[in-house]
Structures
1.
Amino acid sequence: MADVMRMKEFEVTADQLGIDLTQLDLDSIRLPPGEDCGIVSDDEDVYQGDNLELNTGFGNIIIVDNLPVVPREKFDKLEGVVRKIYSQIGMIKEDGGLWMPVDSETQKTLGYCFIEFNTPMEAELAKEKTNGYKLDRSHIFAVNMFDEFDMFMKVPDEWAPPEFKPYTPGAVEEVAGGSPTSVVAWDEAMEEGEEWSGGAGRWVGNRLGIGSLDLRKKMILTYQKQYLDWDMGKLKDFGTFLGVLFEGFEEDFTGLLKDIEDRLGEGVGHAAIAGVILRENLQHWLTDEKARDQFVIRAGSDTEVLWNDARHLKPEPVYKRAFWTESFVQWSPLGTYLATVHRQGAAVWGGASTFNRLMRYAHPQVKLIDFSPGEKYLVTYSSHEPSNPRDANRVVIYIFDVRTGKVMRDFKGSADDFAIGGTGGVTGVSWPVFRWAGGKEDKYFARIGKNIISVYETETFSLIDKKSLKVENVVDFSWSPTDPILALFVPELGDHPARVSLMQIPSKDELRQKNLFSVSDCKMYWQSNGDYLAVKVDRYTKTKKSTYTGFELFRIRERDIPIEVFELENKNDKIIAFAWEPKGHRFAVIHGDNPRPDISFYSMRSANNADKVKKLTTLKGKQANALFWSPAGRFIILAGLKGFNGQLEFYNVDELETMATAEHFMATDIEWDPTGRYVATAVTSVHEMENGFNIWSFNGKLLYRILKDHFFQYLWRPRPPSFLSPEKEEEIAKNLKKYSKKYEAEDQDVSMLLSEQDREKRKMLKDEWDRWINEWKQLHEVEKLERQKLRDGEVSDEEEEYEAKEVEVEEILDVSEEVLSDNF
């Protein structure tokens, strides 16, 4: 490690070199490539604090209590027994890995021992498997983690009810809303003893970056003038953590304070003002004047967020960062957060004008993440290989509160405990392990086990009625996208037929059930509004040598949930793909055994509103194996991926006509934007060539194409649901022509602007060409004397024009005669 220079020596050296430290901007200093000089980067410090808290150095040690008390003669035998038990679970360190204290007076053991494993995971597994282990009738192991000792020692001898404290971040939000009552209440709470260097200070630091050195000094000095009651500790914390201020006030912190006081009223304290500064509008991107959508891409080591500027036929950069994530990124369901994944855990990012880190979630070696539909909770998953090859992989799942970072519930166990179906181990774990009930409330989540479905509620994060739902032989379940309704599938077992049932949560009342016979397989498809449920049932023929497919269609919103049995005209056709129209009543099916299958469209509504499926049309012999409905319905892409090499057909289901056909060669992914106006097709790094993405209009017009080497991900940023009622949306759709004039005028202005820009570009190119010609003419004149000198004074530049012709002239060089004999 390099020697550390004291500040005095630093100042002397700077003075010798003629450097004025007071004029030095530390933020402008750039280290040489590949050098960190021991300075922790912004990405590294995300989890450094967590490592100090989580890994105290004793996480791999357990304490085993209730061992037999034995004399010296039996010490080795007891140690051998304990070592044999625990060496089967994990690797015990050789030097002092098992220590059994001995009473110095009696020379007998004290009835407990310390065992140190190689990893904390092994120690946790040992505790889990041996706590309560019966060595004999009198000795039952009590196993604890060594890290838990401090926690036990802090437990008071007498119980006292916990002191109620208001939720501070919630108060900050109210402050941002400008409620005078909440401003005063939170400020008073802060004055009663909440220290900035504690929770509030860390909360500030989690959400905001650190500004330049000059800006921090200016903020501290200005704030000290406004609030002289602050001691230096509070001033230092505040100045260190605050770096991102309201847009437009970065240069004048005094102006920011005045602006806040004008809005909240005079006399507010430092806590209230901090609340306003901290509060960023995480939905600011929805207020874009051009009504554009954002998307994120990953290519190489870079992750980039961009606007889709279709009018200008190019993307507009928003934020770019190298090594932002170590595996993938993921938007939250409503688009508020962008999640990144790291070795130490996950983090979420967002902000009004850029992407600040809002919260981090410590989970070492996290592999997968999943948000709840309302963005309140984040589920993280990791699996770890056991030290003993005979044991199964260990699975760890955390459920975090997204906004506070608090672990609400954890689930740990072997991979077999989380596997479903007949497959064991990690390969049998289906993600997401926990499936969330539909809606923004995030009230329920569930997972499937052997003959049970465990349904949890988020108020206490415990099982509903404190017990799992027992369903013999259940193999799959699915939540309604909008309601707390579970759809369960139970295959045939002995003389009992297979069945699909709908169950209401939390009452666990069965709403509807359908028995099915000769079932080979079953898959469930919910319509996005939860109005319909389609159950695709593969059945055996009478000979059991082949299968055929039919559908059971549930009408959820109608009385008694009627069920309609639906089969294709040729029920032996293979079903390749099925998809509901979002927010609609139609569905599409790709079916057939030919290389070019057929595509049929059906409606759940028929003439006179009869409850019967109506066929709309069938498209014969299409190069398609996947269906991609527009989120707004009506339009669909019939896509031929994989073997069809990216064939695309843009189809209008209202008019039952093809709008366009196109191809994106080797396309692997297709993503509609959340409004249904544009669609992206991408070639990811699965293929080595042609990596990048294309942006199309909804009717199949190619707008622009971007090539990116090592392209990994393309994700549109989701939008929250509209606040308009269905009736209002329908009214707007009917009067669209009235609104369209405004947007047509805007489009015309943009078109004229683009035309003007094109004219300016052509004029610039012509001017550049003329400038280049003039430069060469001047050079030609400058070199004229030199050319004349080389030609002995002849002025060749003034010669008349002449025409060069090529004339061939034949000349006989030699003639020879030779007499040939006629004898062959």
2.
Amino acid sequence: MASINTAVFVPENALVGTVVARHNTSLQPVIYRLLNGNDYERFSIAERQGVVEVANPLDFQIQSTYQLQIRIDNERNLAKNASLWTLTVHVLDVSGYPPYYNKTCETPERSSGLPRLIEFTDLLLNGSSRNGLKISNKTDIVNVKKSTAYFSVTNDICEVNVTFGIKHVQDVAVAHVMSKAGVHNLTLCCVAGDNKVSAILIDRDWVREPDIPFLLPMAFSELVASKGLNAMWVDNERYSYFVLVKLGILKTATPVTIKLVLTKVMASAPYGELNFTGQTTVKLAGCPQGKYGAYCDKNCICKNDARCHGFNGACLCAPGWKGVACDIPTPAVAIDVRPEGNMYITGNVSLQCRPVHINASSMTWWFRASRNNSSKIFIQTSRNFSISPILPETNGVYTCEVTTSDGHTLERNYVLDVMECPPGLHGDRCDRPCDCLHNVGCDRWAGCVCEAGWTGPTCNMSCPAGTFGTNCKQQCRCENGAECNPFNGTCICPHDLTGEYCKGKQRSPFHRTQDTLQYFTILVFILPVVVVACIVMRRKRKFLKEQHQQPVHEELQLVDVNHQQNMADTLVPWERDPQYLTLGNLVGVGTFGHVVEGTLHLPGELPVRVAVKIVDTNAEYVQADFNREMDMLIYLYDRSLHTKEGEKVMHPNIIQLYGVVTLSDPKRIILEFAPHGDLQMYLKRLRDDINAVNWATLFGLAIGVSKALQELERVTIVHRDVAARNVVITDGMVAKLADFGLARDVYTNTVYEHTNHHGRDELLPLKWMALESIRDGIYSCQSDVWSFGVMLWEIASLGEEPRYPGPFRPNCCQMVNMLRQGNRMEKPEQCSIDLYRLMCQCWYDASDHRPTAAQLEERLAELVREVGDCADDCVTVWESTV
């Protein structure tokens, strides 16, 4: 028998039906038969044509080489002229393939409605100008079409961007007005949720100016280079304007309502001043079964009950299957759990061990308790196992070990970490009734969570005279025997008293009329002066704007001259000449603008590697945060007790300030460079190799943050945004607290008002905030401790976004209701009970019951010692569910 040897190379992402090889012969007719080497039926051959094709999806990681044995026979005489064709198929590894299935943005399967992965509903749009231009639109469901919207999804981080091509006459007119007015960045804010959404208006004719690159967020050429638009739009001049909407990270099907507010946008004649408001609801709706993609127009290849990801069609295989399409059998063990819903302490749960593609000879259950780092113990030999009742000591890792008939062993783990009590019960073992009054929540550890104005074990007593607020911890300041509201401390004055604390006597109407006349007289004289000053300032600013060719409108701001002078005096030692700065690569984009790596060359000193935070907007709240961060860092340096080589230095766990640039634009803060980035990104990088995570190192980073909080407590400063994203990691793996833009002085917080100015409170980090901060606007060092507990949750989950029971992105009201009812975040999968208990202590409703920063450092140090002592025996305490 003659033999033929051929080798071919095929990329692993070759589509089913792709021709791999073709055999030509002079013998006619012939029959081709694939004898062996076709593992898992990956290839097929046409019996009479000699064409080898891909029959099922390939996967380089599963098998990279196939040796196909193909017999070629003469159909008229099978015994004559037969030959053997050996076809060696080399599968090539393709970067980014197979697609990654990201569970954090797992999409539902929809059974009805418009086939769209993402829905835009309840659109409201209103616009007006002083010359009478009006725009109004209201739509229940927005039918986003391929001709006008291009979706770009990044499955690795669940990010969704949408580019809208503007072509309708009315939309082009609006875009033209905004473009000429210099409106580039349109920052959107979420009504429900903390996911920051932004939009960029892009003009086809815009070109980035090299001298002022920060004024233009994105040029058209950059949009094309990023492949962020429909390729058909590139050369189509009909599309002159584009809006790139960055929806950020979408993680659930919970709708997110976003709104846009643009006020006092100065456009050229004849429009004048413009005002726009818009609102829409974005929902990750999912595709019908078997479909994926932004328009649900792509077919999934997943088989054997595998789940198809709506973003990229990646398959999540059921136990016992593998491969890009989950069509290759593999031995596995599955554990079926009943019930599937919420479980409570004192309840019960049943586990069933299910071998898949295994000839099992025995099944054995083992248990390793979460508490006390216990060793693995034998439970029983059977398929089924029940836990009744569920108690704190039954939490842990349950392992089903299956022995095959040929002596091999496979196992599967299930982690039981039930932490909640049934409704109406509390206590460590959930054996104490709550009996709470006034429909308040009941915390497992603290019991009834009383509303402000109530106290007692069941919230059955109003606050004692002279006290008010949560747990009646605040002292009333009412005078002259006035009554104090036990809920908010408001003084209820008798008819003859007045003032906030009822200090003054009520005056007669005659005196009030005299005062009014005095105020009116003052206004008559002062108002013209203020108006003239405003006109002069506006004309001066207009002149300066024309000199610098700045198209963006700036609102007139009246500032406290004395405060500015004091601030200027403070900044003198810290002011740096921009010529001493060499800027490098972009590090990131934040609230202020952007951050770049740089080098500071001060005369007579060695160059220093720095991070430069640059402000690229004149928005009032951004300037306020910028100034506040400068103030706080300088204040912390001035109050520091630390020295190095005889010179004062910043606390070692607070980011070092190297200087500021305030006398020229753009404004800049020069900070210590952190080569390891922020803690959040560091944690996310650890997910790639969960077994290599060093928990002692992570606890050490948390200890560094606790030391920074102790320093803030010493100098009476509240940070207000303690989170993994605001902790940077410098050389030597030292954690340093950064981003003091929201910091407040504890004892002078009346300077800063809790308002909704420019939507500012909607930017507050709700999921990191203490109950009293969201509900009452009260911030203290103990509210920072609450946020520290959330940061510990981020560490234990390796950088996941905090998630509470209920809506994934709750608004303020939902958040307050959840926390008042005692709801807290659940324990992350790879988190120990001891660490989770420390988190829960940080989340006590009563702020004075929370641990101090010093106590946090002490407890974390104990956890570091425990992790170090137990070494290998502690591995399962931190393992994920397999």
